[in-house]
Amino acid sequence: MRSLKLSFLLLPIVLSLWLLAAHFLRNGNVVLCIGLVVFPLLLSIQQRWAARFIQVALSVSAIIWMQATYQMLSERLMMGDDWMRMSAIMLGVIGFTILSACIFLHPSLEKRYGLTK
Question: Please, what sign has the CA dihedral across residues 18, 56, 96, 63?
Answer without folding.
Answer: negative
